[in-house]
Amino acid sequence: MTTSDPLSVAAEAARRFLAGVADRPVGSAATPAELTAALGGPLPEDGVDAARVVADLARAADPGIVASAGPRYFGFVVGGSLPAAMGADWLTTAWDQNAGIYVLSPAAAVVEDVAAGWLLDLFGLPASASVGFVTGCQMANTTCLAAARNAVLRRAGWDVEQRGLFGAPQIEVIVGGEAHVTIFTSLRLLGLGAARVRTVAAVEQGRMRPDALRDALAGGTGSAIVCAQLGNVNTGACDPLEEIAPLAHGRGAWLHVDGAFGLWAATSPRHRHLTAGAARADSWATDAHKWLNVPYDSGVAIVTDSAAHRAAFTATAAYLVKGGDGRRDAEDWTPEFSRRARGFPVYAALRSLGRRGVAALVDRCCDLARLMAERLRAVPGAEILNDVVLNQVLVRFRPAAGGDAGAFTQAVITRVQQDGTCWLGGTTWHGAAAMRVSFSNWSTTAADVERSAAAIAQAARGGASQAGRGRPRGSLPPRGRRAP
Ligand SMILES: *Cc1c(COP(=O)(O)O)cnc(C)c1O
Description:
Elements: H1 6-20, H2 32-39, H3 50-61, H4 83-95, H5 106-123, E1 130-134, H6 137-155, H7 160-163, E2 171-176, H8 181-189, E3 198-200, H9 210-218, E4 223-229, H10 241-250, E5 254-258, E6 283-287, E7 299-303, H11 306-313, H12 343-377, E8 382-384, E9 392-397, H13 405-419, E10 425-429, E11 432-438, H14 446-460
Parallel strand pairs: 2-3, 2-4, 4-5, 5-6
Antiparallel strand pairs: 1-7, 6-7, 8-9, 9-11, 10-11
Helix pairs in contact: 1-3, 4-12, 5-12, 6-8, 6-11, 9-10, 12-14, 13-14
The protein binds pyridoxal-5'-phosphate.
Pyridoxal-5'-phosphate is lined by residues 77, 136-138, 180, 182, 229, 231, 233, 258, 260-261, 287, 299.
């Protein structure tokens, strides 16, 4: 393996992986010890041939690679990678641009500007909003809330960027009872505290209750930030922003929306109603690496008050050449300084899909979620726990012989994971275990849903010792066989 160059070896290994990703067992059963044995060992004293390093890595890592890019990975909300986005991502690596400031990569800066405009248009958000391309929605939430912190304290006569939070006026942070865990990490990073928030009760499906928000807002008079959500990770439910926005603004609060995947419903005429009122918020965090199907890492932070957004992040130094001619210096809009030109894959994904393609991707995933719910509803003992309004299906299984549905559901999840036809995870919903099935991959088909629903039904019938066997005909090869 010294005849080829490393890029050819990588391209060949990537093609082989992608050709087989739909057919390999979806999860990974490799243990840390096995992977360490294959990949570990002492640091070599002398270097190894580059092509060989890449070839060895492709082979040794393979058992630990999860087919989350494939069509039957329904865990978390992970998306996939559109071919155009992946191609652009490869080029981004080859170009190795530093997208921090314009002079380091004019092309990266302009492509980000273009992609930002397209995203605002797709989401129906104000064209004047500023956009930062960050690593994911965790950092998008952090970026937006940093802008929020700046703005609400500026209105209270306090420059938080210079003076910090020491002695600052209080900020009241109000979050929905179903806020995503990353909101709390963002609040911790920003000195706003994870535990001093006021939590607003949610209705059954996880949407924020406007009457409870009204009560929460009635108490205070000072600076306030309200964190709402589009797309509950369990149910897909979206907070009623049309009612929430006037309540928040009536009190002078900043309204932030965590729309990691739910904001994408705004791109679809069929699902846009779920996001009604979204344009009235002050900031929005979303992901491109989830529903837009670009490779990791890719999140988007959008802020209406671009002055507050810039104030939170801009840096100046004698050696930095910045600004002028409406040039975008990306570091003004993100917590990072030097960084990958992650706008290229976002641009490529949007251009390859077009407006209609983005909507079709969202609609197809939602249709597949409904199909899965329909199939699982027919499984004896299964109960669909959510209104399948978006791309998430939440289900619980009761054992035929009676007993604890939570423990049984957990056992079904484990059996499905061991079987390898598809992969999905568990959660706790209203105090008991539930199975989560999430759709966000461009390559998933109705046939994948049928095959996966059959595997889940089999697991629910209790084929504990049958894991990996007794698959429906035409199903996966046994674990361990190499993908073609
Ligand atoms: C996934 C998710 C996040 C975090 O996004 P990352 O891209 O993983 O950082 C935040 N909020 C919601 C609702 C999510 O689904």
